[in-house]
């Protein structure tokens, strides 16, 4: 049975005119394990079979084969399977996030084919944007092979990141849940953000904005090691905020971001606090878990699991504001992360994730988290207008 949606990669492989344009060109490929056809053939193999000369691979955070954990520097010089020379765009320094001009000098075209998640913290979009900027300076074309926004392309939630809170989890003025595909984001970056290049987006066929990933008929491939399912992606726009705290977002378990807690959490009380907020589209189950790595590794955490009962009404960001607020009120042991985060050590991680320190201050002051999450941000209106101009699928 054919999937309802044809990705940019599949469209490229079926487009003789585009393949002829690639014939004889020196091509770079920005890819990871999600760079597959609808039959799960990797783009590296599929392109080479069609005569495309792949001169160099570029790997985003986690690497071309995604064996590295989050914020783990990737040092790779060749792909272990294909043997193609490889450049990591997520090393140990901020400068490693963009390719050098030397790494682009022998290329004519860079193809970018990676699955985004739909939240502004997810670093892949910025890796594509920085590639666009570097290719623009080098005179190299960029073709973005588009893929679905897995949590649909209609819903937009959250505030816009402030200039003073820019980082690799918020490099451009996007809403937290931006409601765009990677191809649409590429147009946004090219048009409004100064990441300019000779850009072509190979659009999908059959994708509609209201679709969630499981509506597409496409196989789910983990976009990163802690994004195992669409359920994870659904709660991620809010639950990623827990990375900015000392509570566990359950990395090191099989249900990251859905589970959350800490050794000091009173789970029964926390559930009652959250029930009091009357949060739509979800329920909370008492849970204990023991992360195998990262925060509270090998220590039993008490907490909850989010069960989304209606993903159309569920508000991930509002829900996670309520979770952080409840933890703040419950225990003096709750704290904001103070260690360096995504190459930044002079600002709190939570401020980088929230994109506005005033939101953290409001939670600390005990303001209603639901109201804080829904605070009107005038910058959202400008984002909405810019976003509208970049949408490819109506």
From TrEMBL:
- What is the source species? Persicimonas caeni
Query: What are the residue boundaries of the Peptidoglycan beta-N-acetylmuramidase NamZ N-terminal domain, all occurrences included?
Result: 27-230
Give the domain of life. Answer: Bacteria
- InterPro entries linked: NamZ, NamZ_C, NamZ_N
Provide the Peptidoglycan beta-N-acetylmuramidase NamZ C-terminal domain boundaries. Answer: 235-393
What protein does this entry describe? DUF1343 domain-containing protein
Q: Which GO terms describe its molecular function?
A: peptidoglycan beta-N-acetylmuramidase activity
């Amino acid at each position: 049975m054919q999937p309802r949606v044809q990705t940019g990669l599949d469209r490229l492989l079926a487009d003789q005119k585009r393949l002829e344009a690639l014939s004889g060109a020196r091509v770079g490929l920005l890819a990871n394990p999600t760079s597959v056809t609808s039959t799960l053939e990797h783009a590296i193999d599929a392109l080479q079979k069609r005569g495309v000369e792949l001169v160099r691979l570029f790997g985003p955070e986690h690497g071309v084969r995604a064996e590295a954990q989050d914020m783990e520097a990737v040092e790779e010089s060749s792909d272990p399977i294909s043997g193609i020379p490889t450049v990591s765009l997520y090393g140990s320094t901020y400068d490693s996030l963009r390719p050098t001009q030397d790494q682009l000098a022998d290329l004519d075209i860079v193809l970018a084919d990676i699955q985004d998640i739909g939240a502004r913290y997810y670093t892949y979009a910025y890796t594509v944007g920085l590639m666009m900027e570097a290719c623009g300076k080098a005179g190299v074309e960029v073709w973005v092979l588009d893929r679905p926004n897995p949590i649909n392309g209609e819903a937009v939630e959250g505030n816009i990141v402030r200039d003073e809170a820019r980082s690799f989890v918020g490099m451009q003025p996007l809403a937290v849940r931006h409601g765009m595909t990677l191809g649409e984001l590429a147009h946004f970056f090219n048009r409004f953000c100064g990441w300019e290049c000779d850009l072509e987006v190979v659009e999908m066929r059959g994708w509609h904005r209201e679709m969630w990933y499981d509506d597409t008929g496409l196989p789910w491939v983990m976009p990163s090691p802690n994004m195992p399912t669409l359920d994870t992606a659904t709660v991620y726009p809010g639950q990623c905020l827990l990375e900015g705290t000392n509570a566990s977002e359950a990395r090191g378990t099989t249900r990251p971001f859905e589970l959350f807690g800490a050794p000091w959490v009173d789970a029964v009380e926390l559930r009652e606090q959250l029930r009091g907020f009357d949060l739509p589209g979800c329920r909370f189950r008492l849970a204990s878990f023991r992360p195998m790595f990262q925060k509270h590794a090998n220590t039993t955490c008490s907490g909850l699991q989010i069960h989304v009962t209606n993903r159309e009404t569920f508000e991930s960001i509002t829900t996670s504001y309520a979770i952080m607020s409840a933890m703040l009120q419950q225990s003096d042991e709750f704290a904001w992360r103070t260690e360096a985060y995504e190459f930044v050590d002079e600002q709190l991680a939570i401020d980088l994730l929230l994109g506005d320190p005033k939101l953290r201050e409001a939670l600390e002051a005990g303001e209603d988290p639901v109201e804080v999450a829904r605070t009107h941000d005038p910058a959202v209106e400008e984002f909405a207008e810019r976003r509208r101009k970049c949408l490819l699928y109506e």
